[in-house]
Write a structure and sequence with these properties.
about 160 residues; four-stranded antiparallel beta sheet; 12 strands; about 10% helix; single chain; globular
Length: about 160
Amino acid sequence: RLITPVQDKWILTEPSTYTIYRNEPNGGLQPFITRTPSVRTMEPEIFLFPGVITPRYYFLQTVKKECDFEKNQDMPKTDLVFDRQENKIYQYTVYNRDFNKRTEDMSARCINGETAFYVTLEANELVEAYEKDKLNGPLKAIAAKLNEEDNPVIMIVKPKK
């Protein structure tokens, strides 16, 4: 997650710094996102990670450096999207229209310019959802052929052209 491909460039992230850089094809570095306040001034620290980057939207995730070891909980995460056109940041939740379920963390699965991200759907979850008639569209047809022991289904998400 520290190196994110974006078309012919790379986004380079160092969680403890306040600037995320873009590596240009000629080898130079350009600031991509500069955050304020600096992560070093926060208590607890909140790290920023880029995910899917489109011409209009930057999908990001914050991770708060705070653990509850007694409850065995992960560090709290917040999914954000920066709308470049409106120059605003929003929290978001993405749902799969064929399976009324929140997607996995799309910021962690950024691939390249042709594939925005992917989601792994476990076969046993799909079989159970199919049996309860909770699936629609192509995913319903795929789940009809599965059994609980099958490999996971990989959903590949591509940006609109």
